[in-house]
Every structure is written in structure tokens, then in C-alpha cells.
Amino acid sequence: MAVRADLLAGARFDPAWVHAEDVEFVDRIKRRHRWALAPGAAVRHESRPTPRDYLSQMYRYGLWKVRYAATTGFVRPVDFLPSAVMVASVVAGIVASPWLLLAYPAMNLAETAFVAVYRKAPARLWPLMFAGWVVKNTGWGAGVLTALAQQAAAAVTRRQPAWAR
């Protein structure tokens, strides 16, 4: 992200946001200023070195996505899709047929296929892309489910979740 500092009027990232700080910042600032995309801009992003690190990162992102939605009221259903498919496939697999447990891997496969075709990825990368989607969606989905459970527990006890205090 690049911004003109002279237009920010002292606005800064909110330190209360450990993750989703960029989303919160843009949401807050876009109310005062027009935004534009810069298609020619080059962005460098550091990837996590191991699947475990990536899983952990996605778990935290899932937690904070729910917290962001609860705080701002901005909810995107797509952010909850991995969790919904994860839960639905387990429940349907237990209740109806074990074959329905394949719904979750099928969602990851569909995402892999879409991105592979869209980005024209070489076929040799498809297995790695699939593994990446499984790790991402599993971490993200588990983080979302954890945060929703924390919110539900807070609602039952009529207390704010620990992260909101």
C-alpha cells in the first residue's frame, strides 16, 4: 500500500489491531479520500518459510477477520466460506454419508483449479498450489471458528471477549 502522507492528517495504523490493521486503516481513511489502484505497481511480499508457519498465520488472520467484522460491522460472506464448508462436510459426513467428508478437499481443489487456470500456472505447480489452499483454508477456517466460539462464550456470559477489552 502506498499513500500520500500529506493527505493523512496524522492518521496512523491503530496499534490495537495486531492483524487486519491494514484493512482497518484503509476502511477508516477511505471515508475521507478517494482511492485508486495502481496496476503497474510492484509489490514484494514475504512468504512464510514453512507450512506450519503459514497455517499459524492464516489461523491468526481468521481470528482477526471475525474480530474486525464484529467491531466494524463489515462482513464478507466469502471470509466465512472455508469454515462453513469445513463444518458442513464433517457434519454431513457423520450424519449422511462419509463421502460428504470430501466436500472440504473438493472446495480446495476448486480454488486450486480456478487459480491455476486464471494465472496459467504450470501443471507441475498444481499439487503445491493444492497443498497451499488446504493449509490456508484450514488455518483460516479454524481461526474463524475459534473466534466465533469466543464471541458466543462472551455473549453467554455477557462479557466482552478478551480481545475487545
Map the helices and strands:
Elements: H1 21-29, H2 51-72, H3 81-95, H4 103-118, H5 126-157
Helix pairs in contact: 2-5, 3-5, 4-5
Notes on the protein architecture:
- It is a single chain.
- The protein has 165 residues and is mainly alpha-helical.
- It is built from five helices and no strands.
- The model has no long low-confidence stretch (mean pLDDT 89).
- The chain has helices spanning 21-29, 51-72, 81-95, 103-118, 126-157.
- It has a domain at 50-164.
- Helix 2 (51-72) packs across helix 5, helix 3 packs across helix 5 (126-157) and helix 4 (103-118) crosses helix 5.
- Helix content is 57%, strand content 0%.
- It starts with 20 loop residues before the first helix and ends in an 8-residue tail after the last helix.
- 16% of the residues are buried.
Number of strands: 0
User: What is the count of helical runs?
Assistant: 5
Shape annotation: flat
Helix content bin: 55-70%
The rounded distance between the terminal residues' Cα atoms is 29 Å
Biggest β-sheet description = none
Output the helix-strand order: HHHHH
Instruction: Indicate the mean pLDDT.
Output: 89
> For the CA atoms, what is the radius of gyration?
19 Å
Q: What percentage of the residues does DSSP assign to strands (E)?
A: under 5%
What are the segments in which pLDDT stays under 50 over at least 5 consecutive residues?
none
State the secondary-structure class: mainly alpha
